Amino acid sequence: MNILITGGAGYIGTELINKLSKNNSVDQLIVYDNLSRGNYNFFLGKNGDSKKIKFVNGDILDSRSIRKVLKGIDVVYHLAAKVTTPFANIDSHFFEQINHWGTAELVYAIEESKVKKVIFTSSASIYGSSSVPSTEETPPHPTSFYGISKQRGEEHVVRLFEKIPTVIVRCGNVYGYSKSMRFDVVINRFMFDAHFAGRVTINGSGTQSRSFIHISKVAHVLAELLNTEVPSGIYNLSDKNLEILDILSSLKNIYQDLEYFHINQHITMQELKVEPRSKLYQFISLPISSLEDELKNFREQFAF
Q: How far apart are CA 175 and CA 291, in angstroms?
């Protein structure tokens, strides 16, 4: 089986490829990435069975390159996206170009190919802001340029539902250690600041809730989708809803001398909850782990 992973050198892609390369049914993994985030850590050390991995430096908007790389591909994982947390309302043009039209170009090419299965990582941000947990039936109401662009990308992927098995996975806020780290997401940033500065900064009151899931769980589910029959459709991928103060509480159990301070403490920031009981879990079991244990394991990855 030959697999194409767009954005494969990124945060999630690095962990997913490590898992897929150990799958005996996989013959080749083609990583298609333009390295716009400078994801060079992906190329260091070993990623599972590295003999299966091939890198193609390409842009998701390059339709000619996309069509070329799709030849002989059985399964496509579409991870490539512009993600800039917390600045999801800056550079609307780039969000639109990459997340919307880049996905459109890929779908057009897939429709002309012999691809047998597609897995697309979307985002829970398309639900917008809500204190009531969103389910797969909740109508999208994105409130950021990022969320809008992901919803528009989904609209193209949906066309594939009646043609080939296609799964859209709306991920909550992904956190945790990866060789291709992102420190612009809240839990990862908190861990860095807590470990090296002994102090974290909280924007707003800290009572706002967000949907979270550890990167190892995301990689597990995505890898399992390769050989698991799941009806074409849209599925949420979330593990828990946490207030920022909940995260702080776990951090203080790990770093007992941790200091923290608020910026604009009187303001309650927007929140987005996602129902943890996803329809996807009928087909794939989510590994169990606590936030505190996950953060302790994260701490062990720091160089000093």
A: 10
